[in-house]
Design brief:
binds pyridoxal-5'-phosphate, single chain, alpha/beta, globular, Aspartate Aminotransferase, domain 1, 2 domains, 37% helix, 4-stranded mixed sheet
């Protein structure tokens, strides 16, 4: 027995699939304490888009700490926060023609989701939120109420209310027109559906099994929101910050959501930071009406600013992400063809990729086989039936090839 088993709660999860003790990390690699390298196709579930201990961000952090820059600042004005706000304005919003106010809701993804839900309800005076099948929005009560997975919902211990699930894109495998059911319920005064305050959606469902909504579906959803006066919340916590190519995952569909949730990689270095963006007319908060002790972790602002300056002032990272995504998609396509009887499905967009198996057991075996060969990837989907590939966006072509070699070998070992 070790202290992880004797002291740490049974709630721990990733450590079970990867039963080693990690110590160092650099770029696309994690190293266990005995020195073995693991190629990281997990990237902190999307919190490490710029890799582990990225040297550019690290130097900015070292310099900031060395000069005794403020570390903890609640929401006090600081130089680090000003630099961050200015770089969001100049690098992210202005060039895209977006007009948003920025709120710091607390350090994690759930904090931005909870803030978005609260704000949508406050602005509209309505209680109901529409969410989608297989959505994941986090583990606090409000976020769980709009999350699909029954095991995670079960952890709440109280009724999860004021949210209504609708079918996500392709839920009926193309057999029904988009939004048939949703639209009918909205228009029928006898449907029993309360007028929704907002719709919350992921453009690609990461935890839900790497389900990428089609551009037409996303545009149709935005149109439906407009027609029925519902706010559109895009939860870009996992798919934002370049995961699918462009900084915001919804740029591809030309959307301008009313509210945008960011976290995971916005802090750049794997540091906790979350941001809620919303249209200026929605800024109806009273001072302090939403609050939190950790809304100003200034080193996270420093790393976030550095990441925006280093990676988002040109389109190199975006192009690289799309090219590497295609590199992965090609190999997944080949595996699908190699094993027709296994009915594999290749899924995803940009550097969020998945390979769906017929069962969670098979996907789990493939992930374990990959771990034995020195590669980290997790499974997702309602039955954990999708092997999920999300390397850092800064991964090299050679590392992608190396990882794909391990994945192909693992699939062959399990399926043969
Ligand atoms: C991870 C995630 C969250 C929750 O973020 P936490 O930091 O874990 O609270 C919310 N939404 C999406 C889409 C996520 O991937």
């Amino acid at each position: 027995m070790n202290v992880f088993e004797t002291l740490e709660s049974e709630v721990r999860s990733y450590s079970r699939g990867w039963p080693v003790v990690f110590d160092r990390a650099s770029g696309s690699w994690l190293y266990s304490e005995d020195g073995r390298g693991y190629l990281d196709f997990f990237a902190g579930a999307g919190a490490l888009n710029y890799g582990h201990n990225n040297p550019v961000l690290k130097q900015a952090l070292i310099d900031y700490m060395q000069r005794d820059g403020v570390t903890h600042g609640l929401d006090m004005n600081t130089v680090a926060k000003r630099d961050f706000l200015e770089s969001v304005q100049e690098i992210l919003l202005k060039p895209r023609g977006y007009d948003y106010k920025l709120m710091l809701p607390g350090p994690g993804g759930v904090n931005t989701v909870e803030a978005a839900l609260k704000l949508a309800r406050k602005v509209t005076g309505r209680e109901s939120i529409i969410n989608f099948t297989n959505a994941f929005h986090g583990m606090t009560l409000g976020a769980l109420s709009v999350t699909g997975n029954s095991m995670k919902r079960g952890g709440a211990g109280i009724p999860l209310v004021h949210a209504t699930p609708m079918p996500y894109d392709n839920y009926f495998e193309g057999q029904t027109p988009d939004f048939l059911f949703f639209e009918r319920l909205l228009e029928d005064s006898g449907s029993g559906l309360n007028e929704p305050a907002a719709v919350i959606v992921e453009t690609v469902q990461g935890e839900g099994g790497i389900n990428a909504a089609r551009v037409e579906w996303l545009q149709g959803l935005a149109e439906l929101c407009k027609q029925h006066d519902m706010l559109l919340i895009v939860d870009d916590v996992q798919m934002g910050c370049g995961r699918t190519g462009p900084f915001f995952s919804f740029e591809l569909a030309g959307l301008q959501p009313d509210i945008v949730c960011l976290s995971k990689s916005i802090g750049g270095y794997g540091l906790p930071l979350a941001v809620t963006l919303f249209k200026p007319e929605l800024d109806v908060w009273e001072p302090g009406e939403h609050n939190g002790t950790f809304r100003g972790i200034n080193p996270a602002f420093v790393a976030a600013t550095e990441a925006l300056r280093a990676y988002w002032t040109d389109d190199k990272l975006e192009k690289g992400t799309l090219a590497k995504g295609e590199q992965i998609a090609r190999v997944l396509g080949e595996l699908v063809e190699e094993f027709p009887e296994a009915s594999l499905v290749a899924k995803g967009r940009g550097l969020a990729r998945g390979l769906e198996f017929q069962s969670g057991e098979l996907a789990g075996k493939v992930a374990s086989a990959a771990f034995e060969r020195g590669l980290l990837m997790e499974t997702s989907g309602p039955d954990s039936e999708v092997v999920k590939m999300m390397p850092p966006l800064t991964i090299t072509d050679d590392e992608v090839e190396q990882g794909l070699g391990i994945i192909a070998e693992s699939v062959r070992t399990v399926l043969r």
